Structures are given as structure tokens and as C-alpha cells.
């Protein structure tokens, strides 16, 4: 049989790839503008052609078989290559590059610098989606994401950006209200923003001090450093913040880091994108730019 006859119909491949991403024939049909029965038919045609089942049909949705999972990864990559090829023929790189990002990173790193990426890549439209939740990159909810974690996500590639270190910071307003911090022991009685934050214990121990009792402190976090830094600037108390995020404020005196001791506050920060989209021109351009910017930012610390 001529080799080209072994290629399955593109319609069947698209139906299979969408159903694999969503784990649902219904959602695949919605994306493709087909009926659920049509999606099921296309996938059955593909299974007959392959000679193996690609999905296990379940009461709620479908699940890929091992053979189906192997094909899904290659099918997604192949469709992405085709999409990029046609985009290049149209002399355009992408649709909008949607960047899902945690709030503190967006405000402190991306916000002040993204214009540089846009100036260097005028053909790539960008949109920042501030989101603390993990979006589905496989389903196209965003193009890339800035995530906190261990760097291991199924079907994803992840580039390490930074380790989130924190240290106590104050502001001139704090000094006006409470006086300066002249020695480590001053922190034992100083008012602290989010005094119940678990990283305080780690910091005190790194400083050789016994952490003060926080039994009645219930404020573990404000949800994001963008709120905590505002409390610090207002002079409400000593605040644990990430120096990498606030280089400019430290340089111009808006914030003061009274002691050199820093501790890790949790898991690292990563740039994450779908494996099948690793060759996307927009993602490759953004990755190259962001890694270079982070190198400068981290080294500056």
C-alpha cells in the first residue's frame, strides 16, 4: 500500500486530539463545531484504522488507553506544527500570547518589563491573565503560565525562573511610626504584617532567634505579596517580602531591608507551556526573552 494511504483523515485526527485534551467527546464537539455523534464516528474510524482502542468509554467522559495516550502526544504536536506553518504562510506568528501569571510576579516582574518584549516582537500580541489557579494549558486556556511548584506537570515543559526567597522589610513610614530596627532582637517585639506566616519561624531560626509565640495569630497570608507590600509601605508593620520582586523599591528607598538574612519561602517559580507547543514562535520568543530578563534580575540580587 502506498505510504500516503496510511495517513488517517485530518478530520478524524482533529476530533481525536480535541477529545484527548478534554477527556470528553461532548466538549471536543463544541470546540470543533460538530455533533457528539460525529466526533464519536470519527474516532471510531481512527480506531478501526489503527486496529486498537484509543479510549475507554466511561459513564462520565472518556479515558485514553495507553495506545491512545501515545498517539495523543504526537497528534497534538503534529497539529501544532501545521498551525504554525500556516501562520507563517500568512506572515503572522500567533494569535494573542496569553500569559497566565501569579499576581506578585505580574506586578513586580512582568508589568514593568513586558513593554520591552512587545517592542522587540511587534507582531506578537500579548495579554496578561492574573490567576492564582492552575489553568489548563493543553486546552488553550492560556499560551504559557508562570507557576509555583516542583516543575513536573504532565504534558508540560517547565523552565526554572527563580527560587522565592523572603526577608523582613520595612518602609520610611514604619520608621516614622515605630522607630528603626537596629538589631535582630528588635524583631521579636516589632509589629509584623501577617505575623502568623509560617516563614517567620524559618527566618527567626536562621537568624539564631527563638520565634515569638503566634498562637493567637490566624492571618497566614493576605493571598499575595501585592497586598502585603502595600501594608509595608504604609508602615503597618515589618513584612516578609521577596527581594527579587522589589529591587526598584529597595533602590529608591520606598522599602528598606534591615538585615541580610534571607530564607526560602516555598517552591520555585517556573515558566510552563504545553509540550506540543514548544515550537510555537511566540512561545519560543517569550521564553528566550523572559529567561534572559530573569538572569539579569536574579544576578542583580
From TrEMBL:
<keyword id="KW-0238">DNA-binding</keyword>
<feature type="domain" description="HTH lysR-type">
    <location>
        <begin position="8"/>
        <end position="65"/>
    </location>
</feature>
<dbReference type="InterPro" id="IPR036390">
    <property type="entry name" value="WH_DNA-bd_sf"/>
</dbReference>
<keyword id="KW-0805">Transcription regulation</keyword>
<keyword id="KW-0804">Transcription</keyword>
<protein>
    <submittedName>
        <fullName>Transcriptional regulator</fullName>
    </submittedName>
</protein>
<dbReference type="InterPro" id="IPR058163">
    <property type="entry name" value="LysR-type_TF_proteobact-type"/>
</dbReference>
<dbReference type="Pfam" id="PF00126">
    <property type="entry name" value="HTH_1"/>
</dbReference>
<dbReference type="InterPro" id="IPR005119">
    <property type="entry name" value="LysR_subst-bd"/>
</dbReference>
<dbReference type="Pfam" id="PF03466">
    <property type="entry name" value="LysR_substrate"/>
</dbReference>
<comment type="similarity">
    <text>Belongs to the LysR transcriptional regulatory family.</text>
</comment>
<dbReference type="InterPro" id="IPR036388">
    <property type="entry name" value="WH-like_DNA-bd_sf"/>
</dbReference>
<dbReference type="InterPro" id="IPR000847">
    <property type="entry name" value="LysR_HTH_N"/>
</dbReference>
Amino acid at each position: 500500500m502506498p505510504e500516503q494511504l496510511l495517513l488517517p483523515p485530518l478530520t478524524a485526527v482533529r476530533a481525536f486530539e480535541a477529545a484527548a485534551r478534554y477527556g470528553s467527546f461532548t466538549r471536543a464537539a463544541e470546540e470543533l463545531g460538530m455533533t457528539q455523534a460525529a466526533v464519536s464516528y470519527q474516532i471510531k474510524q481512527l480506531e478501526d484504522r489503527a486496529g486498537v482502542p484509543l479510549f475507554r468509554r466511561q459513564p462520565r467522559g472518556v479515558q485514553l488507553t495507553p495506545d491512545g495516550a501515545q498517539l495523543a502526544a504526537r497528534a497534538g504536536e503534529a497539529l501544532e506544527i501545521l498551525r504554525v506553518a500556516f501562520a507563517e504562510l500568512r506572515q503572522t506568528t500567533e494569535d494573542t500570547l496569553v500569559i497566565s501569571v501569579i499576581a506578585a510576579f505580574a506586578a513586580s516582574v512582568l508589568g514593568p518589563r513586558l513593554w520591552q518584549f512587545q517592542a522587540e516582537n511587534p507582531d506578537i500580541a500579548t495579554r496578561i491573565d492574573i490567576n492564582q489557579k492552575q489553568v489548563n494549558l493543553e486546552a488553550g486556556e492560556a499560551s504559557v503560565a508562570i507557576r509555583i511548584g516542583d516543575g513536573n506537570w504532565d504534558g508540560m515543559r517547565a523552565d526554572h525562573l527563580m527560587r522565592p526567597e523572603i526577608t523582613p522589610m520595612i518602609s520610611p513610614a514604619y520608621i516614622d511610626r515605630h522607630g528603626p530596627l537596629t538589631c535582630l532582637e528588635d524583631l521579636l517585639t516589632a509589629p509584623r504584617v501577617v505575623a502568623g506566616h509560617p516563614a517567620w519561624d524559618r527566618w527567626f531560626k536562621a537568624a539564631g532567634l527563638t520565634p515569638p509565640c503566634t498562637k493567637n495569630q490566624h492571618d497566614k497570608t493576605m493571598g499575595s505579596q501585592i497586598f502585603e507590600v502595600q501594608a509595608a509601605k504604609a508602615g503597618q508593620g515589618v513584612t516578609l517580602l521577596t527581594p527579587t520582586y522589589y529591587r526598584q523599591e529597595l533602590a529608591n528607598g520606598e522599602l528598606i531591608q534591615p538585615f541580610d538574612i534571607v530564607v526560602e519561602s516555598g517552591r520555585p517559580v517556573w515558566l510552563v507551556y504545553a509540550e506540543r507547543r514548544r515550537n510555537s514562535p511566540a512561545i519560543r520568543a517569550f521564553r528566550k526573552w523572559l529567561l534572559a530578563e530573569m538572569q539579569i534580575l536574579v544576578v542583580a540580587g
